[in-house]
Amino acid sequence: MVRLVRESFAVVEPHAEKMAELFYATLFSIAPATREMFPVNMEVQRSRLLRALVHIVQMVDRPDDLMPFLRQLGRDHRKFGVVTQHFEAVGMALLSSVKQYAKQAWTVEVERAWAEAYTIMARAMLEAANADDNPPWWNGTVVERHRLGRDLAVVRVRPDYPVPYQPGQYLSVEIPQRPRMWRYLTPATAPREDGLLEFHVRAVEGGWVSRALVTHGELGDVWRIGPAMGRLGVNRESGRDILMIAGGTGVAPMRAIIDHLSQWGENPRVHLFFGGRVRSDLYDLENLQAVAASNPWLQVVPVLESDSPLPTAERGTLADVVTRYGAWPNHDVLVSGSPGMVRSTVSRMLVAGTALDRVVYDPFTVD
């Protein structure tokens, strides 16, 4: 099954965007009621589908990684009001669209493999959704907003009830300015007793939600916040030190993990490379350096691609700088940032000799 799914998806992948368009057109034809679950502009949703498919295909022979991801997806989809018959329609639309672009690679055996794989996926998602006693989402009110620049803001949200998450995980949010456009944001602090959530939001090009958050968000806005997802985190009992690689606002999950670790006096050694193109991208550097000054287990290395008056900064891309130090064979590696930065950094590290099973990153880091 694994081989057939991967080989046929390799044929489809060059046509992935068209396949995603066909998938949603087929889904809305089979189950018209599902159209109301999605925004008018489907560009981000199609991109998210492709990233999920790629991630699942990559992990299809690693059930210990795949099953937690699918269970998280199942719990997350409760916010859409997804029920069993929707999964049936999704399966039909998925197989139909993959078949269309697999062409001659689509055989009876391939169809059987995809059907088996989807059945496993859907069962894991449904079981997790049905077993979850939490609400499908939490309401939260924006209580603070700070513009750090033209395209960057720190937003603090107080949920009506504390949202359960682990430091490093991300949450889906829906804002009143963009209904039905759920986007993923990562809390930049560990869970607090008062439940307050802090988000660092960069307005990205073509980002309908991120731009609305930075430029049009207001105090008192009520957000809907979905359940936690993601694999980034630190096992303090593993005996291994930690390498963190963060680009721009990708530092948020690292900051949450560091915030969590700082409650203990002894921790694994944490080496954080915090990078960006220009100095303003390292917006949280001073805060991180202040934490490092009082926590000897933490070392923070700024990285800049352009010339900068920052004398302590390493010069180059994060991939360049991190791999100059070698393969980091004795570290657990956490990577967060734009999809391009994550791809290039992970690829370079694997070439340098870093073991794949030591590298963790999440597929939904930027929308």
Quick overview of this protein structure:
This protein has about 375 residues and is α/β, with parallel strands linked by helices. Helix content is about 40%, strand content about 20%.
At CATH level 3, the topology of the largest domain is Globin-like
| Strand line-up across the major sheet | 4-3-6-1-2-5
**Mass-distribution shape:** globular
Assign the CATH architecture of the largest domain. Answer: Orthogonal Bundle
- Helicity level: 40-55%
Would you identify the CATH H-level superfamily of the largest domain? Globins
User: How are helices and strands ordered from N to C?
Assistant: HHHHHHEEEEEHEEHEHEEHEHE
Number of helical elements:
11
Q: How confident is the prediction overall: mean pLDDT?
A: 90
Q: What is the CATH C level class of the largest domain, in words?
A: Mainly Alpha
**What does the main sheet amount to?**
6 strands, antiparallel
The rounded distance between the terminal residues' Cα atoms is 31 Å
- The low-confidence runs, each spanning 5 or more residues with pLDDT under 50, are none
SS-based class: alpha/beta
Rg from alpha-carbon coordinates: 21 Å
